[in-house]
Specification:
The structure is a single chain. 66% of the residues lie in helices and 0% in strands. It is built from 4 helices and no strands.
């Protein structure tokens, strides 16, 4: 690193690196050092991370070991069930109406002997 970073910003950068957020650490570095370019910031952060991994490897969060639970979307199943229920109710209603119309038609049909 070319110039020393303020202690509070260095602490934020170290925390970001411990949590595996290298891009965020680079952003913090560039905010702390306004004249720093992206390549310079990346190199400085990588050097800092290597030094930290040598001196404090136990503080790093193992990103791969943290399993994020897969989201289980239940609402589409409820929508599907409601849609199927609506179709079944529509079919039952139509069968009832067809039967009612047949009964009315049969009642009004003149009987021939």
């Amino acid at each position: 690193m070319s110039a020393p970073l303020p202690e509070n910003q260095l602490a934020q950068i170290r925390t970001a690196l411990f949590e595996g957020q290298q891009i965020y650490a680079i952003k913090l570095y560039r905010e702390a050092m306004p004249g720093a370019g992206l390549a310079e910031a990346k190199k400085a952060i990588e050097e800092l991370e290597q030094e930290m991994r040598r001196t404090e490897p136990e503080k790093f969060v193992d990103v791969d070991s943290q399993q994020t639970p897969t989201p289980r979307y239940r609402w589409p199943w409820f929508v599907l069930a409601a849609f199927l229920l609506a179709i079944l109710l529509a079919i039952a209603w139509m069968r009832h109406e067809v039967q009612r119309v047949r009964e009315i038609r049969d009642a009004n049909t003149p009987r021939t002997n």
